[in-house]
Amino acid sequence: MIFAKELGDTLRGALDGDRRVVLLGEDIADPYGGAFKVTRGLSTAFPQRVRTTPISEGAIAGISAGLALAGYRPIAEVMFGDFLTLMFDQVVNHITKYQAMYAGQATCPVIVRAATGGHRGYGPTHSQSLEKHFLGVPHLRVVAASLYHDPRVVFADFLGRDEPVLYVEHKLLYPQHLTLPVHGMVGDLIATSDCSPGMLPTIRLSAVPAAECAVSVLAYGYPALLAAKVVERLAMQEEIFAELVVPAQIAPMDWAPVLSSAAATGSVVTVEEGADGWSWGSEAASVLSRRLFGKLRRPVDVVASAPTVIPSSKTKEAAVLVGGAQIEAAIRRAC
Q1: Which residues form the Transketolase-like pyrimidine-binding domain (predicted)?
Q2: What element of type H or E holds 314?
Q3: Span 185-334: which CATH code?
């Protein structure tokens, strides 16, 4: 199952199952089918409810908000997540506020899909992972796509609630095969799924039980795939054992699985592709240091991309963005 194809089929199922679902975005209609071809074929099947928009993320957000207030279930695609910045006012000051402002008499369940991340040589304004700027916005759920979470399950959860959601999809996940847990395994790694009430599942991957691991690695999205490769290789080649913890929902966080893993290993590394500083990893370090005060062997190690512009040159881009080498070095330090 290729992630982009499975995501497209998930959207098709949503459109087929609920006439209130509407898709909006730039160039999402056929024959183009979106920049990453996720929506290919959908406008042909549902011509009235899959609509290409002008190049205006602010307008996409505003139209989506109006549709949601009128009872529809809009799914808005942002071709490049860098331009979530143009939606920020609509999301923070309008979409996330209506339900609380009107004591539940109005809901605004907008789902925003955003293609994020680098490693493709797209340069400074088409390669960023800006989701950290949306973390902590009241009444906004931020969810990260991963190869370990079934998009059908994720979108069923989205459409079953009257809440706005930002769903970030790293571009490098689109051509990858989903690796969902099967019989408690993902490849050679033991896979467990933890889920607190009202939360999406958190997947935990390790070569040995968590109690035998030396470090917990907390990662989401594409960096989780990078981390999984490092965790598996270190376990098989050097018997350095780490547990990878992959949440789907990164805000608000389900801390229970993270705390469980961290308490078992006594050491934590966080990994994200966003720029270092004032980040998801920083928040995780803060929470873990408070809730597990005196129980961790060392400070939480936060691994992120360099806080600078992302170059177009692939060589220079690789020097800025987080990669497997940084993850491996952090795991070795943490053991």
Answers
A1: 1-176
A2: helix 314-320
A3: 3.40.50.920
The string of pLDDT tens digits covering residues 209-244 is 999 999 999 999 999 999 999 999 999 999 999 999
DSSP string covering 43-73: HHHSTTTEEE--S-HHHHHHHHHHHHHTT-E
From the list 86, 77, 84, 67, the residue with the least C-alpha distance to 25 is: 77
Tell me what pLDDT residue 38 has: 99
Helix (H, G, I), strand (E, B) or coil at 183: coil
pLDDT tens digits, one per residue of 97-109: 999 999 999 999 9
Mean pLDDT of 319-331: 99
Tokens describing residue 197? 């009430």
**Nearest-angstrom CA–CA distance, 196 and 199:** 6
Statement: 3-173 belongs to CATH 3.40.120.10: no
Mode of pairing for the β-strands spanning 242-247 and 202-206? antiparallel
> What pLDDT, in 10s, does the model give residues 63-80?
999 999 999 999 999 999
Give the single-character DSSP code of 39: T
Q: Are 206 and 215 in contact (CB under 8 A)?
A: no
